[in-house]
Amino acid sequence: MDNAIEVEDLVKNFGRVEALKGASFSVRDREVYGIIGPNGAGKTTTLRILSTLISPTSGVAKVFGVDVVKEPVKAREMISYLPEEAGAYQNLSGHEYLEFMAEFYDNGSMSIEDLLGEAKHISGLEERLDDRIKGYSKGMKRRLLLARALMMRPKLAILDEPTSGLDVLHAVHVRQTIRDYVDKQGVTTLISSHNMLEVEYLCHRVALIDEGVIVAEGSPSELKDKFSAENLEEAFMEATRLG
Amino acid sequence: MGNLRSLVVKEIKELVRDPKILLGVVLMPLIMYPIMGSAMSISQQSMMRAMASASFAVYNEDEGVVVDTFLEYVYTNNTVHTIEAGSLEEAIMAFQETNASTLLYVREGYSENVTQGVKANLKLYANLKSLSIVETESPNAVSGLINLYSYYLSISKIEGYIAETGGAAEPDAIRSPIRTTSASIIKGNVLEVSPSAIFSLVMNQSITLPMMTMLTLVFAIQMAATSIALEKEEKTLETLMTLPVGRMTILGGKLAGSIVVSIFGALASMLGFGYYMNSAFAFAPEMTSMTTEGFSLGLKPFGVALVGINIFITLVSALALAICLSVFSDSVRGAQSLTGVLFIPIFIPALILMFSDITMLPETVRWILLAIPYTHSILASKAAFLGNYSAAIGNIAYITAFTVVVLYIAARIFSTERILTSRFTLDGLRNLLKRR
C-alpha cells in the first residue's frame, strides 16, 4: 500500500530565500508524524505545499499517491489543514462557521448534522457555539478551528503548531483531543511544532528539520537513542550540531 | 452549485454583519441623504418664510404729488417702516435701528421727473447684518415691486401719448416691440419647448446616470477589497483555499457576494437620493415632476435591459479589478488604499461626461477617455437613454472585453499561490525598479 505522504527532494525558493533545500520524508497510513525545528526551518512551507497552498520550486509531494501539484483539487478532498495563525469569520457564530465548513464535506458518508455533531463534540464549546466568534478567546477559537479541521474525519490532517500561543488549559485540551481523536478515527496526522515535548507526546515518528533540510528521522525513542539524548530537544541540538 | 451558494451566503453574512460595511454602505445613504434633504428643505422653507415676511423701510425726500401714488402702492400688502429724518445720513442711521433689511430711498425730484418724462431715480440700501441669503435677496424683492410699478407706469404713460396722438397701437407692443419664442427639434419632431428647458431636464438625467454608476462602482470596489482583505487580516484565507472546492468557485462566491451587497448599497443610495431630491426641492415641484416622456427621450424596455447588462458587467469588472489589487495587501485599510487608485478612472470620465459630450472634447482627451473602460459604462447608459442602441451595444462590448481580461487575471491570481504570497511594499517596488 502507498504511504499516506511521500515527499521527495522538495525545494522551495521565495525569491533569493531558500526555504526548503531538498527535504524528503514519508508518512505511513494512520501514523501521527511530527516535523520539528526552529522558526524558519521550513516546517510551515512543507505543510503549505502538502496542503496545495503553494507550489514547490522542484521535487515531488504526494498524498495517498496523488501529486498535490498536478491534482490539487483531488488532494484537497483528502486533506484538512489547520494553519498556525488561522482565524475564523468574526461575524459568524461558531455554529454558523462550522455549518459553512460542513457544507463542503456533505458527501454522503457524513451528513451536515453528523459533521456538526462531531465538531461540537471535538470543540467542547457547547452553547458558546451560538455566540459570534469575535467574542471568543484565543483558546476557544483554536478549539473551534481544530473541530473544523477534524470533524469530517479526513484521510490526512495537517496541523501547523496546533497549540501555539495557548494557555496550559487550552493547550492540554487541544493536545488531548488530537491524541484521542486520531487514535480512535485512525486519521493520518502531520503535525508541525517547535514544542518538542508536545511532539514526543503526540507523534509515532518525527522528522527533525533545520534550514530546509531533514537532518534526522525516527520515533522519539529511536532519535533519543541515536543521539544519546534525554529528550527530543537534546536530540535536535545534537543532530543539528552533527549535521 | 451548493458550494457556490454556501460561499455567497457566507460572504453576504460577513459583509452585512460588519458594522463598517452596514453603516457605511447601506445605512448611511438611507440616513444621510434624507437628513441632508430635510436640512435643505427646512432651510429653504425658513428662507422663504423670512423672505415672505421681509419688511423694508422707506425714506422719502420728495414732496410732490406723484410720489404719493407710488408710496401707496408700496405700502399696500407690505410691512413698511417709514423713516422720518432730516438727511440721508440720519435716515440710514435710523434704518439700522429697525429690523428691516432694505431701505428704499426716494430722492427729491421724483415727482417732477416722472411728470416731465425724465427718469426718476430710486436707491436701495441693503443692511447686511449676517450675510444670509434672505438679506442679500431682500433688495431683489423690493426691486421686483418697483419694476412691476415701473412697467404699469410706463404702459399708462404710453397709453396717454397714444391718446394724445390719436393712434391705435398697443402700449405693450410699443414698450417691447419684438417677441421671441423658442422650439426644439428632437429626432425630427418639432416640440414647442425651449431648448434650455429640455437641456436642464436632460442634464438632470445625464448627471444622475454617471453619478449612480459611480456610486455603485465605489461601493462594489469597497466590498471586494474588504472581502479579500478581511480574509487575509483575519487569517481565514488559507483555510478557505484548502477546502475541496475549485478556486474559480471561491472567486465566483466572492464576486457574487460583493455584487449582492453593493447592489443593496446602490439601492439604498438611490432610495436615499430620491428622498433627498423630493424633500430638498419640495419648494420647486417643477424640478421633480418634469418627465422625459413628452420629449421622446427616456428608457424603453430594450434600453432598460441594456442599462442593466451594462451596470452588471461594469460591476463585475470593477469587482474583479478590486480583487486583483487587494490581493497585494494584508489589511482592510491597505486594500482600500490600494483600490483607491481605481476611483481615478471612474471619477474622471464621470465628472467630464456629466457636463460635456464626448464628441465636444479635444481629440487627445477624447481618445484618452475612450481608452478608459468606465467611460464606456457611462456612454452606454447615455446612448440607451437617447435610444441609440447600436452605440450602447458597442460600448458594452468594449467593457465586456475589458471585464473578460480582468476576470482572467483574477482567475490566474486565484489559481496560484500569488493570492497568499503577493505583497505590495515600497521595498518590493524599489527592488523591482532596480532590476529594471
Q: How do the strands line up in the largest sheet of chain B?
A: 2-1-3-4
Low-confidence stretches of chain A: none
Helix content of chain B: over 70%
Indicate the proportion of strand residues of chain A.
25-35%
Q: Total domains of chain A, how many?
A: 1
Q: SSE order of chain A in H/E notation?
A: EEEHEEHEHHHEHEHEEHH
- Helix-strand topology string of chain B: HHEHEHEHEHHEEHHHHHHHHHHHH
Please state the second-level CATH architecture of chain A: 3-Layer(aba) Sandwich
Question: Largest sheet of chain B, if any?
Answer: 4 strands, mixed
Backbone shape of chain B: elongated
Largest interface: A-B, 32 and 24 residues
CATH class of chain A: Alpha Beta
Low-confidence stretches of chain B: 285-290
**CATH topology heading of chain A:** Rossmann fold
Total number of helices of chain B? 19
Average pLDDT of chain B, to the nearest integer?
81
**Quaternary structure:** heterodimer
Structural class of chain B: mainly alpha
Number of helices of chain A: 9
